[in-house]
Design goal:
The protein is α+β, with helices and mostly antiparallel strands and 250 residues long. It has helices spanning 2-15, 143-172, 178-201, 205-246; strands spanning 34-38, 43-45, 50-58, 71-77, 83-89, 97-101, 110-119, 124-134. Strands 2-8-7-4-5 form a five-stranded mixed sheet, with no helix packed on it. Strands 1-3-6 form a three-stranded antiparallel sheet, with no helix packed on it.
Length: 250
């Protein structure tokens, strides 16, 4: 059982060492013309509106450009490279360029290429980038993290099954001690930790549902029943032992 707890905590520790790589926006390097500066955000939420904002500067002197001398267009393409949005970008009274992108353009999870071009009759500038759209707007998790949580799930199921059988035997024999109770409750709290780590690091609905089932079942198998076994051992078990000791076999 010590190896079981060691394995669970080792897996939990490894979660903090795994990070998914994020796509980055690429800015075209130019020596004359305009430079376009947008937000470094790279991950968007599926089926949610997004407001894309940016500044346009003259590369030579850093002066901001507005719609009196420049115009900008924006395109958005899906993972297949098909352009799904192409339109002019309006200039906002607050002093920046901004475009409202409807949620329908992000109906599918995956990668979306985008680009913006701003120009006058003699100067121009472009920027291209990559957005990743996920179901919850958070960084997607790699296969290694999901596999790790599956292993944790199987370890916990095995631990629950083992302790349920051991606890049942000790409970029937009325010799369920503090050690048995501590192991059961400790294993349940490990499950709670794994459940919340899953919600934080993975957000996989299937794993979440399976862990939630274990959480609900574990309340009874690892908390309520062990407490009942322990109380019965302290009361009925102690009483039976005293009766047995008091019997005269001569």
């Amino acid at each position: 059982m010590k190896k079981l707890f060691l394995g669970v905590f080792l897996c939990i520790f490894l979660l903090s060492m795994i990070n998914a790589a994020k796509p980055a926006t690429t800015v075209q390097q130019i020596t004359t013309g305009f430079i376009i500066e947008d937000s470094p955000q790279t991950i968007l939420k599926q089926n949610q509106d997004y407001q894309y904002n940016f500044f346009v500067k003259n590369l030579s002197n850093g002066a901001l450009k507005d719609d009196t001398t420049a115009s900008c267009i924006f395109y958005l393409a899906n993972s297949s490279g098909n352009v799904i949005l192409f339109k002019s970008v309006p200039y906002k009274p607050e002093g920046y360029w901004g475009l409202d992108i409807a949620s329908g353009n992000f109906s599918k999870a995956g990668f979306y290429n985008y680009g913006t071009r701003c120009n006058t009759s003699i100067l121009a500038g472009t920027i291209v980038g990559l957005w990743e759209v996920t179901s919850d707007g958070s960084s997607p998790k790699g296969d290694s993290v999901i596999i790790l949580f599956i292993i944790l799930f199987l370890i916990i199921v095995g631990g629950f099954t083992y302790m349920f059988i051991i606890s049942l035997g000790h409970g029937v024999n009325l010799d369920f001690d503090v050690k048995d109770l501590a192991i059961n409750i400790g294993l349940y709290f490990c499950l709670i930790i794994v459940y919340y780590l899953q919600a934080l690091y993975v957000t996989n609905q299937t794993i979440d549902d399976l862990l939630l089932i274990l959480v609900k079942v574990g309340v009874w198998t690892n908390c309520v029943l062990p407490m009942i076994y322990f109380i019965l051992t302290l009361t009925v078990g102690s009483w039976i032992k005293k009766r047995v000791k008091g019997v005269d076999y001569s």
